[in-house]
């Protein structure tokens, strides 16, 4: 394994779900889904640097971030090194800005950036498709985070197909002061008697213009998360009262505020930021 010298770093971009359709429970315990996933400019910073020994060591500026094998960055580095047959150690540094356990794929984005950077640092020159296959072994969102942009994700989320770009949208993100368990939310979905059958992902792909785009944002898990965590539903209602549309991203609890009027969005951001420190205005990229 040949190794470059120096320090490499890159942004690790968060994602939002434009749509999230749950199609059913699979035999392996996961769920078949269809999602239109979108990168946004909210990001962490991931840095890698070669060590003289064979240790993989993670540093972070954020309390509460696990620094061992519980962290996807460490697991990504270990997996890539093992698959490449190398022995080099590496220092990983994470500058955390994406909220944790927020439905924004922060951990998956960090793992994806780690794979990209180590592919360069160790001069592997693996193609994106090979990194995405590896990423799918780490988590369902990692393949998308490796590719980024706008994509239709299917299977358990690991099958990625690039679609027409939705870059340039401005979205308000409001993260309540708690996280949610994705397995818990999917278990709650399985218990629903009347499961949604809207399949918003396909309808959005078939649209021919930007007209009515926000009306197609949809999340099948929203009812479950709002039922377990009423504050999510309250946020959605408050955004509607401010002239926007509120839709949860991922399994939550972050809620997106979609506004056609930029002044209304700015007023909403100012109001929410007083109560929720993790409030952001982001752009799709």
Written account of the structure:
This protein is α+β, with helices and mostly antiparallel strands and 285 residues long. It is 33% helix and 28% strand. The strands form 2 sheets. Strands 1, 2, 3, 4, 5, 6 and 8 form a 7-stranded mixed beta sheet that branches. Strands 9-10-7-11 form a 4-stranded antiparallel beta sheet, with helices on one face. Strand 9 and strand 10 form a beta hairpin. Helix 1 packs parallel to helix 2 and helix 7 packs across helix 8. The model has no long low-confidence stretch (mean pLDDT 93).
Please specify the SSE layout and strand pairing:
Layout lengths: L6 E19 L5 E20 L5 E5 L11 H13 L5 E6 L10 H16 L6 H9 L5 H6 L2 E5 L4 E4 L7 E5 L7 H9 L9 H7 L11 E2 L2 H7 L1 H12 L3 E4 L6 E4 L3 H14 L3 E5 L2
Helix pairs in contact: 1-2, 7-8
Q: What letter string, H or E per element, gives the SSE order?
A: EEEHEHHHEEEHHEHHEEHE
At the first level of CATH, what is the class of the largest domain? Alpha Beta
Q: Give the number of helices.
A: 9
Class by alpha and beta content: alpha+beta
Helix content range of the residues, please? 25-40%
Output the radius of gyration.
Answer: 19 Å
* Number of domain units: 2
How much β-strand is present in the residues? 25-35%
**Spatial gap, N to C terminus:** 34 Å
Q: From the coordinates shown, what is the CATH architecture of the largest domain? A: 2-Layer Sandwich
Kindly state the mean pLDDT as a whole number? 93
CATH fold field value of the largest domain? Ribosomal Protein S5, domain 2
Number of strands: 11
Low-confidence stretches: none
Characterize the largest beta sheet: strand count, sense, and whether it forms a barrel.
7 strands, mixed
Shape: globular
């Amino acid at each position: 394994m040949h190794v470059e010298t120096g320090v490499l770093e890159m942004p690790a971009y968060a994602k939002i779900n434009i749509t999230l359709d749950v199609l059913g429970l699979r035999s392996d315990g996961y769920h078949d889904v269809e999602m239109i996933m979108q990168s946004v400019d909210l990001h962490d910073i991931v840095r890698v640097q070669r060590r003289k020994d064979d240790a993989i060591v993670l540093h972070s500026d954020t309390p509460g971030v696990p620094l061992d094998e519980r962290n996807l960055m460490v697991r990504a580095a270990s997996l890539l090194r093992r698959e490449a047959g190398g022995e080099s150690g590496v220092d990983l540094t994470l500058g955390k800005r994406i909220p944790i356990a927020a439905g924004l794929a922060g951990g998956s984005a960090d793992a994806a950036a780690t794979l990209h950077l180590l592919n360069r640092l160790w001069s592997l020159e693996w193609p994106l498709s090979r990194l995405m296959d590896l990423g799918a072994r780490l988590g369902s969102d990692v393949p998308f985070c490796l590719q980024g942009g706008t994509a239709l994700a299917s299977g358990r989320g690991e099958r990625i197909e690039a679609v027409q770009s939705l870059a340039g949208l401005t979205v308000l993100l409001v993260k309540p002061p708690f996280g949610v368990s994705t397995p818990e939310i999917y278990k709650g979905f399985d218990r629903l008697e009347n499961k949604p059958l809207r399949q918003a992902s396909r309808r959005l792909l078939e649209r021919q213009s930007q007209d009515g785009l926000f009306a197609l944002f949809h999340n099948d898990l929203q009812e479950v998360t709002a039922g377990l965590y009423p504050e999510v539903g309250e946020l959605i209602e408050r955004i509607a009262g401010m002239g926007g549309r509120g839709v949860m991203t991922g399994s939550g609890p972050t809620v997106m505020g979609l506004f056609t009027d930029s002044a209304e969005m700015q007023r909403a951001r100012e109001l929410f930021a007083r109560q929720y420190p993790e409030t952001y205005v982001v752009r799709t990229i």
